[in-house]
Design a protein that fits this description.
The chain is of the alpha/beta class. The protein contains ten helices and ten strands. The strands form two sheets. It has a six-stranded mixed β-sheet with strand order 6-7-8-3-9-10, sandwiched between helices. A four-stranded antiparallel β-sheet has the order 2-1-4-5, with helices on one face. Strand 4 and strand 5 form a beta hairpin. Helix 3 runs parallel beside helix 6. The longest helix has 18 residues. The protein is globular.
């Protein structure tokens, strides 16, 4: 079943048009990746889905239109956004950050259970539960950002460059956990990533963006095995 459908999406920063008629979809329960160089429009696409930039066209989530809704309303529908730069609250502890992720929920007992579930996914966060987020390493902060987003119990998680600035071993661990979350928690994932090789390992479908346009689409395996695409757009 199609969970997210993007049709003729155009986005603007002031008078500058950043997206030029994007069209793609994401099926429920899958991982989809948006690939492309810096400035291609990947981050803008995620922001347009969340109504953080001015956009026209069609964005539907589970058949419901999103454009025109507030960002808060989009979140309440079940979409969690993990922006580039992580966005953790550095003066709050790890556990306080997780509790804040569930601030819109009223099921106190279930929230406590979900925190423990996050600690199972990310054991290092349990070790650091009373530590201020600002004192964590970059990899630990990224894990906390993902865990906090999952506290919303989203149906769809939008991830913007989760590997940015992280050591290769940390990145591989993080992507392994994302794959596990998709499989076990049934969270659909749309991931924007410059580490194309790693993103294609966990994704089922991939779209390549260049200057605000989709230039290639296919299964992750099709994109990964196309040498011309890899050399021209993905850099490996």
């Amino acid at each position: 079943m199609t969970l997210l459908a993007i049709k003729d999406l155009r986005a603007y920063y002031g008078q500058v048009q950043a997206l030029h008629g994007l069209e793609f979809s994401l099926d429920e329960g899958t991982v989809t990746t948006l690939l492309g160089a810096n400035g291609a429009g990947k981050t803008t696409t995620l922001r347009a889905i969340c109504n953080m930039v001015r956009a026209t066209g069609g964005v539907e989530f589970d058949g419901k239109p999103l454009l025109g809704k507030s960002t808060e309303s989009v979140v309440r529908l079940g979409i969690a956004h993990v922006p580039q730069g992580r966005g953790t609250f550095t003066n709050m502890t790890v556990e306080e950050n997780l509790q804040l992720g569930a601030i819109s929920r009223k099921d106190t007992r279930a929230i406590a259970g979900d925190i423990e579930r996050m600690y199972a996914h990310f054991p290092v966060l349990k070790q650091r539960h009373a530590q201020q987020a600002g004192t964590l390493s970059g990899g630990e902060q990224q894990m906390l950002a993902v865990a906090r987003a999952l506290m919303l119990r989203p149906r769809l998680m939008l991830l913007d460059e989760p590997s940015f600035g992280l050591a290769p071993l940390i990145v591989r661990d993080l992507f392994g956990i994302l794959g596990k979350i998709n499989r076990e928690d049934k969270v659909s994932i749309l991931v924007v990533e410059q580490n194309a090789q790693l993103a294609l390992e966990i994704a089922q479908r991939a779209y390549v963006i260049e200057t605000g346009r989709i230039v290639m689409a296919g299964t992750a395996s099709e994109i990964a095995s196309n040498e011309d695409i890899r050399k021209s757009y993905l850099g490996y």
